[in-house]
């Protein structure tokens, strides 16, 4: 934890991250944003010839879709909902009085039809399902979104609001598993090209509760999730900066994603944690991008 706090303080002192008073909620400097923009261009150069359909969803999604996705069943500890004042003038007077007295004014808020997006791909599945059967060869999609996960921490790599870039593949089992392996190979090369030490390891999602342990064990046993790990605040406990996930036909069956022949589509995704990758670069090469190695600067900025 000391190394995490130390690195966070250095980022604050350098002005790369801006403190807000809430753990895991930070402003970003132009230099920090410039690193993310440069790395996204590297992503574009790596996957741009694949012909993915680019879609950008907002950081909030339809609550009904969120509920159907099953996210609350598996990860209630991470979910974030959007609440708002929906009262009348008398309710507003009560609200103001509550605030003046230092009470909990949030008790009068009601849930809206929007929840905070937990992963960039979650709004994609119902969107594609509405279009009908997938085209011959399946579908490939390029996504980027702000995401929310409620896990306050002093670890700068574990932010509550962050950006995720994803490629999602829909098709046959053979197609999507080939896609996942392709991006595992690409991911390693990309990180090596920008001077980062990486390793890939089998992983599991943070499923909640006793039943969640069984789901996590099943996910690991079937090698459904891998993560690309990079030192950020520790050389021993490395940070997952990319993930490679094979969902089998789970999302296909849930959302009615059908292939041209009527069979249920399998899906897989690769996710880039953009803030985490930027932090890994600053941790490895220093807090001033002008001092980064020439070969790294060339890869990122040409």
TrEMBL record:
Keyword Secreted assigned: no
Protein name: Amino acid--[acyl-carrier-protein] ligase
UniProt keyword terms in alphabetical order: Ligase
Domain of life: Bacteria
Species this protein is from: Ectorhizobium quercum
EC numbers on record: 6.2.1.n2
A single MF term (Gene Ontology): ligase activity
InterPro entries the UniProt entry points to: aa-tRNA-synth_II/BPL/LPL
Enzyme class: ligase
């Amino acid at each position: 934890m000391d190394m995490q706090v130390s690195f966070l303080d250095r980022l604050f002192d350098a002005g790369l991250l801006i403190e807000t008073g809430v753990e895991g909620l930070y402003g970003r400097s132009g230099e920090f944003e410039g690193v993310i923009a440069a790395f996204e261009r590297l992503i574009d150069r790596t996957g741009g010839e694949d012909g993915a359909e680019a879609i950008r969803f907002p950081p909030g999604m339809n609550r009904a879709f969120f509920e159907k996705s099953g996210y609350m069943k598996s990860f209630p500890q991470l979910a974030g909902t959007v609440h708002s004042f929906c009262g009348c003038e008398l309710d507003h007077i009560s609200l103001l009085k509550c605030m003046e007295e230092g009470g909990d004014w949030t008790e009068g808020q009601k849930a809206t039809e929007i929840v905070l997006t937990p992963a960039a791909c979650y709004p994609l599945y119902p969107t594609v399902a509405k279009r009908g059967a997938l085209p011959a060869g399946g579908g490939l999609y390029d996504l980027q979104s702000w995401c929310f996960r409620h896990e306050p921490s002093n670890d700068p790599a574990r932010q509550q609001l962050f950006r995720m870039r994803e490629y999602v593949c829909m098709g046959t089992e053979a197609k999507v598993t080939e896609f996942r392996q392709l991006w595992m190979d690409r991911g390693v090369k990309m990180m090596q090209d920008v001077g980062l030490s990486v390793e890939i390891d089998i992983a599991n999602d943070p499923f909640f509760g006793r039943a969640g342990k069984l789901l996590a064990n099943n996910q690991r046993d079937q090698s459904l999730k891998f993560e690309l790990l990079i030192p950020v605040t520790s050389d021993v406990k490395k940070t997952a900066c990319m993930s490679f996930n094979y969902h089998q036909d789970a999302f296909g069956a849930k959302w009615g994603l059908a292939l041209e022949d009527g069979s249920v589509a399998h899906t897989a995704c690769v996710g880039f944690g953009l803030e985490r990758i930027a932090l890994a670069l600053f941790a490895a090469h220093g807090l001033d991008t002008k001092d980064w190695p020439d070969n790294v600067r060339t890869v990122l900025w040409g």
